[in-house]
Amino acid sequence: LAGAGGDGGGNNEVQWCFLQVKGAIDEDVAEADIISTVEFNYTGDLLATGDKGGRVVIFQREQETKSRPLCRGEYNVYSTFQSHEPEFDYLKSLEIEEKINKIRWLPQQNAAHFLLSTNDKTIKLWKISERDKRAEGYNLKDEDGRLREPFRVTELRVPTLKPMDLMVEASPRRTFANAHTYHINSISVNSDYATYLSADDLRINLWHLEVTNRSFNIVDIKPANMEELTEVITAAEFHPHHCNVFVYSSSKGTIRLCDMRSAALCDQHSKFFEEPEDPSSRSFFSEIISSISDVKFSHSGRYMMTRDYLSVKVWDLNMENKPVETYQVHEYLRSKLCSLYENDCIFDKFECCWNGSDSTIMTGSYNNFFRTFERGSRRDATLEASRESSKPRAVLKPRKVCTSGKRKKDEITVDSLDFNKKILHTAWHPMENIIAVAATNNLYLFQEKVN
Amino acid sequence: MGEEEGLHQTQFLDTMFVRGLKRKCFDGEEDIEGTLAGIKAIPSYNLQRQSLLDMSLVKLQLCHMLVEPNLCRSVLIANTVRQIQEEMTQDGTWQMINTQSTGQASLDRLVSTDILCRSSRDQAEGKHVPAYGTFNKDFESDQAQDSSETMSTAPSVQAPRNLQSNVWEMENPQENKGNFQKSLDQIFETLENKSPNSVEDLFSEVDNSYYDLDTMLTGMMSNTKMGHCDSLETFSSPSNTASNSNCKSDLNDLDHIVEILVES
């Protein structure tokens, strides 16, 4: 997959322009509107977001017209639907949040689009289909749907299809429920396009897309005695090409690669990835900041990327003892870990993503900052998603956090960072340099500057 | 800058942390620079480690009332507590807690936790986090105040039920409610018998096993009273949890609910 620009070979650094922003402008953010997941589909024409209120909003890219090939398409709302509702578990006297934790698209096989969306307990398969024609001239019912009197049916006719205004319908096709005792953190569609995995804190289950009443448990790290619990599963993903291989990350900063051919229950890993701890930087917070919040395979399948609290690491699947690349996201927070522990920010789960050609990676930070790292040139950028820099085609100015005493103009000191403005979810178009950045309740879209 | 390097060597502190201590604990007494110049100046390191332990235990107890708490977060906090406990056992400071000398030192410990609970921005602006500030005033100015009034602002009252039922695994909810009531009674009984003046009395009765994480977890799992009552006893400033709760705005509802429960 070749990206449009931003490729490895000594090109100029990608400059980002503002494309669009979606969401309310109000200072008062409704909790339900907080975006909790963002995902492009396989072609990049559709962009789905899920929010805390259990809703899914799908944006579609407008088609470029042949007369203006350089005018890049904008994303407009295509479909909105309520995916999950709040539930109450009467047995435990606990609410089950309707927040959408993850959305994953299925590859398109016919005119309709399919996606999986999940909250803490239940995964649903949604079919999104277009309807732009309707049938007229039924024999047994009137145009308004009422049944015709039988004696009025004097002749048979073939109904005809007439055009109508485009209607996009979302319908739930499957509900995969009751398989998770703990909170689901990941779902991943297999490259066989027939199965998928769902992972919670202690278990990973394998599902067939057609079968809802049964799933296979493939990883179980629950100890016999829960008092001995010291590690949980934080993320899991199938390999993009090998349908028998998946990885899962843990709260202790380890990644296990498993091969489903070797055993039905993959408690024994095939590979174990862990970077030895640097003894000089050990503190009481070492384990917490080593906890992996996201793991993503590269498109090529050769590498995987993990995100922990302060850094992003790229691993070669053939080398288990250390990552091949480490990028510091916000190292200036290392001296603030105690405060961040106190206000719980240290538990924030940031995601990360690859661009289409695997040459650049992106992840979020605080103060609505997000970071991009070009792997070849080792160039990195800090950008901000803000209303202030949201003029059409405005080029994003790189931001800088001041770490030493003297603050230069336009720099921001660590103490004035807004830790309530966190960018946890980002997504990169699979083929082009278009990125979607979720900033609380707003979705920002940026695209590469075209000269 | 040298001061900050010293901090970095202790691998533990951040600047806010130290400034807070300076204002409250060492005012007009020891020279803070002198204390911290060396690596691991013993009194302050232990104090701060103790504060971290207190904070961690409070975090474990404070759970969302209605929604199952985040297991990953709970596990990470529990592991931190375990780490501190192990280190304290190795240091031999585990024993020091029992022989905590003067009421003044105990008060310092309370106050340092106070500093910890304030966000760095509030620190800088010298603001009081609202609910927390209220408690602080009550505690310091009105020593003879009925302790149960203090409890009414402490969401940690919810802690027994939530701790045992939500942190690892749900047991029978009916049992939990019964234990909650039992724990609540014990809490009131305990606090009414002690006037906040005798802070050192509170500390002298610290049950060592409270700090034993395994015991605490066992206490949760088998629904015994041991973990919760004692832990609330030793949290001589239980309403510190109120300030932690301000870190999450939806726990303001918790205060309201607790007030209702306590009054009933």
Distance between the first and last residues' Cα of chain A? 23 Å
Oligomer: heterodimer
The pLDDT mean of chain B sits at 49
Structural class of chain B: mainly alpha
What is the CATH superfamily classification of chain A? YVTN repeat-like/Quinoprotein amine dehydrogenase
Shape of chain A: globular
Show the largest interface. Answer: A-B, 40 and 47 residues
Structure summary, number of beta strands of chain A = 32
The beta-strand count of chain B equals 0
N-to-C terminal Cα separation of chain B, in Å?
54 Å
Indicate the proportion of strand residues of chain B.
under 5%
> Which term fits the overall shape of chain B?
globular
Q: Give the SSE order of chain B as H and E letters.
A: HHHHHHHHHHHHHHHHH
Protein name (chain B): Cell division cycle associated 4
GO cellular component, one term (chain B): nucleoplasm
Domain SERTA (chain B): 45-92
Pfam family, one (chain B): SERTA
Question: What is this structure's SSE topology?
Answer:
The complex is a heterodimer of chains A (451) and B (264).
Chain A: E1 16-22, E2 35-40, E3 46-51, E4 55-61, E5 75-82, E6 87-89, E7 94-96, E8 102-105, E9 113-118, E10 123-136, E11 160-176, E12 184-189, E13 195-200, E14 203-208, E15 216-220, E16 233-238, E17 245-250, E18 255-259, E19 271-273, H1 286-290, E20 294-297, E21 303-307, E22 311-316, E23 325-328, H2 337-342, E24 352-354, E25 360-364, E26 369-374, E27 380-384, E28 400-402, E29 411-413, E30 425-428, E31 434-439, E32 442-448
Parallel strand pairs in A: 28-29
Antiparallel strand pairs in A: 1-32, 2-3, 3-4, 4-5, 6-7, 8-9, 9-10, 10-11, 12-13, 13-14, 14-15, 16-17, 17-18, 18-19, 20-21, 21-22, 22-23, 24-25, 25-26, 26-27, 30-31, 31-32
Chain B: H1 2-10, H2 15-24, H3 32-37, H4 42-61, H5 71-91, H6 93-96, H7 103-117, H8 120-125, H9 130-141, H10 147-152, H11 159-166, H12 173-192, H13 199-204, H14 213-221, H15 226-234, H16 240-245, H17 252-263
Helix pairs in contact in B: 2-7, 4-5, 4-7, 11-12, 11-14, 12-15
InterPro entries (chain B): E2F-SERTA_domain_protein, SERTA_dom
Protein name (chain B): Cell division cycle associated 4
Domain SERTA (chain B): 45-92
